[in-house]
Write a structure and sequence with these properties.
By secondary structure, this protein is α/β, with parallel strands linked by helices. The protein has 2 domains: about 10-295, Class I glutamine amidotransferase (GATase) domain (Rossmann fold, 3-Layer(aba) Sandwich); about 310-485, no CATH class. The protein contains 9 helices and 23 strands. The chain has helices spanning about 90-105, 155-170, 280-295, 330-345, 365-375, 415-420, 425-430, 430-435, 455-470; strands spanning about 10-15, 35, 50-55, 55-60, 80, 85-90, 110, 130, 135-140, 140-145, 150-155, 175, 185-190, 200-205, 230-235, 240-245, 255-265, 265-270, 310-315, 320, 325-330, 355-360, 440. The chain has a 10-stranded mixed sheet with strand order 2-1-7-6-9-12-18-17-16-14. Bound molecules: 2-acetamido-2-deoxy-beta-D-glucopyranose (NAG) (10 copies). The site of one 2-acetamido-2-deoxy-beta-D-glucopyranose has 5 residues, from strand 10. The site of one 2-acetamido-2-deoxy-beta-D-glucopyranose has 6 residues, from loops. Pfam families: Agd3_CE, CBM87_Agd3. InterPro entries: Agd3_CE, CBM87_Agd3, Yeast_SRP1/TIP1_CWP. Keywords: Signal.
Length: about 475
């Protein structure tokens, strides 16, 4: 058996918690208390070993927990802290357990479990007061022990039993991410998937147990880069499917991707796929299922989603790919439907949502359009220079070098509203109902590449655009950073 080395684990807790409770005390070795800054680091890949299940060889680098006996106990706990306790092999992989909790501001603590094991934090200090409101375990914190032991969890069977017992006593749920299907989750493995380039979509099939997550069922998401184990439910009396893998090469039928088990009151949600919230949109989508289930939708904090849809280069003519060698300039009729469309999107977002598009404007496009209509009214005319050639990607401009592209004069913004107002696109933006439906930012006046630009040019790019935004009234929009001007 592996030796359980006392006090050797790294333990860290959420910034949201006062660092007041030290769950494992050791005079011999001081505990490493680390505040997790949600740094996205790729977790080291754990190599797979071949396991033979039902005469099928499946490559796996996670396990399942065996031989744990749970004592049936009635729920007696009366007071429970909502802190989520997360077990992970290392800090990088722990990110997939806590990044979503950070997003909601749900308090959590992470216990890093090395191959030689840990002592469990004190789960409860009395018969009735529990210190944790939920458990999350990543990859069963399993390691390859080489030889007869093979892949197994670094949490011992006795410790799993203690966690299970606590679950029953305090009515606390457990989430297990990246698990090899087995009887421990009422399932069996059908295989391991997928080889590079093979796509097997995953979708939520039954969201009844986590309604507050607001997830769509039947919406397939990519599993590319997420090693997973298509499963078959063998024990339906205590196992309910919540997510499914689609059929793909080597898997003719749909299979189970995640389940909820209810073992006479001890409840767990088990995902048969790796999670990588540092890069995978799929993991980021799926995590809302377990977060809402494990907390029963009752948690501190609230979910924040910042979605910035910024439309670039308003007023400028743009080369387009198709038809080749043609240009496009947006027209009022293209914009009008967005004014009515944005409220329809908000109408089906959760209460409190306020989504709107943000537009980056370039004043020179307004002058170009106006002078096409009446050149005489636009004085010096728009700012024009030859096509710029892209610098190499790693180009670093030597300070003090460069060639001015802008004309020597005038130094300050020269145009009058009798020029700017000729443009029907500007007239559209000047209508308050249109202007205030969007947020606005200053792009630059002409969109000059600034990799190799001079101070002379950049100063004009910024100040002329600001002067123009003020003159035409865009700077008076309700959603505009006026204080910066
Ligand atoms: C498990 O192995 C697969 C296949 O090599 C790999 O894609 C995945 O990242 C590994 N999982 C972990 C947690 O290391
Ligand atoms: C589980 O128990 C069986 C029967 O006692 C034993 O053969 C097996 O080695 C045990 N497995 C583990 C992982 O302890
Ligand atoms: C909950 O846990 C946190 C951190 O472990 C601790 O600071 C707080 O006092 C606990 N609250 C209760 C009610 O036990
Ligand atoms: C913690 O709860 C368990 C039941 O899950 C109980 O057996 C144990 O005595 C409790 N611990 C303390 C210190 O009261
Ligand atoms: C198993 O063997 C590999 C390769 O020698 C080694 O890297 C790993 O640390 C070993 N696992 C344990 C738990 O000792
Ligand atoms: C969906 O989940 C709910 C809640 O877990 C369960 O009661 C129901 O039986 C499930 N439906 C199906 C079709 O499995
Ligand atoms: C899934 O399990 C059921 C019940 O044990 C069995 O009848 C069926 O053949 C299994 N399907 C696969 C694909 O293994
Ligand atoms: C597009 O323009 C380029 C450069 O002027 C020219 O070489 C090319 O033949 C044109 N393509 C077509 C399909 O007109
Ligand atoms: C940068 O500008 C200078 C001066 O105009 C020019 O000589 C040089 O070729 C430019 N460098 C790049 C990488 O475009
Ligand atoms: C912008 O608002 C200021 C202050 O209300 C006002 O003086 C100015 O005339 C407005 N500008 C335009 C172009 O409407």
């Amino acid at each position: 058996m592996k030796t359980v080395q006392m006090f050797s684990h790294l333990f860290f807790k959420s910034t949201l918690l006062a660092a007041s409770v030290s769950l494992v005390n050791s005079a011999a070795e001081s505990e490493a208390l680390v505040v997790p800054t949600a740094v996205r680091t790729a977790a080291a890949v754990v190599s797979t070993v071949a396991a033979k299940v039902n005469n099928v060889v499946i490559n796996t680098n996670t396990t399942t927990v065996a031989n744990v006996t749970t004592v049936a106990a009635k729920t007696v706990g009366t007071t429970l802290n909502s802190t989520v306790l997360i077990f992970a092999r290392d800090t990088a992989s722990a990110y997939s357990g806590f990044s979503g909790l950070n997003g909601y501001a749900i308090p959590y603590e992470v216990v890093i479990v090395p191959a030689d094991g840990i002592t469990l934090p004190t789960l409860n200090s009395s018969e009735t007061v529990g210190n944790y409101g939920a458990f999350v375990v990543l990859s069963e914190v399993s390691y390859e022990y080489n030889g007869t032991e093979g892949f197994q969890s670094a949490i011992s069977a006795a410790q799993w039993a203690e966690l299970y017992q606590y679950q029953l006593t305090f009515g606390v749920r457990m989430v297990r991410l990246d698990v090899f299907p087995s009887g421990d989750s009422g399932t069996e493995a059908i295989g391991g998937c997928c080889a590079t380039g093979i796509e097997q979509l995953i979708s939520i099939t039954n969201a009844t147990a986590f309604p507050t997550a607001g997830l769509k069922t039947g919406a397939g998401m990519s599993t590319q880069g997420l090693w997973h184990y298509p499963a078959n439910i063998t024990e339906p009396e205590y196992t309910t499917e919540i997510a499914q893998f689609a059929a793909t090469t080597g898997f003719d039928d749909v299979s189970t991707a995640a389940v909820i088990n209810d073992f006479s009151g001890r409840q767990q949600m088990v995902f048969f796929t790796g999670f990588a919230t540092d890069w995978s949109p799929t993991s980021n989508f799926l995590q809302h299922a377990w977060i809402h289930w494990v907390t029963r939708g009752v948690y501190t904090g609230f979910r924040r989603v910042n979605l910035n849809t910024q439309v670039d280069d308003m007023f400028l003519e743009t080369d387009i790919y198709y038809p080749v060698n043609t240009t496009f300039t947006i027209a009022p009729s293209d914009l009008a439907q967005h004014v009515t469309w944005m409220p329809t999107v908000n109408a089906y977002l959760p209460p409190g949502s306020d989504w709107f598009m943000e537009v980056g404007h370039n004043g020179n496009g307004n002058i170009e359009d106006a002078e096409d209509i009446n050149e005489r009214k636009c004085g010096v005319g728009s700012i024009e220079y030859a096509d710029q050639i892209d610098t190499p990607l790693e180009f670093v401009k030597p300070p003090g070098t460069g060639t001015n592209l802008w004309p020597e004069t005038p130094a300050t913004y020269p145009y009058t509203t009798s020029c700017t107002d000729l443009d029907d696109l500007l007239q559209w933006w000047q209508k308050p109902a249109n202007l205030n439906a969007f947020a606005h930012v200053s792009h630059t006046f002409t969109h000059e590449d600034q990799d190799n630009a001079t101070y002379f040019d950049v100063y004009r790019e910024l100040t002329w655009n600001q002067a123009w935004l003020k003159q035409v009234g865009i700077a008076n929009a309700t959603k505009f950073s006026k204080d910066l001007f």
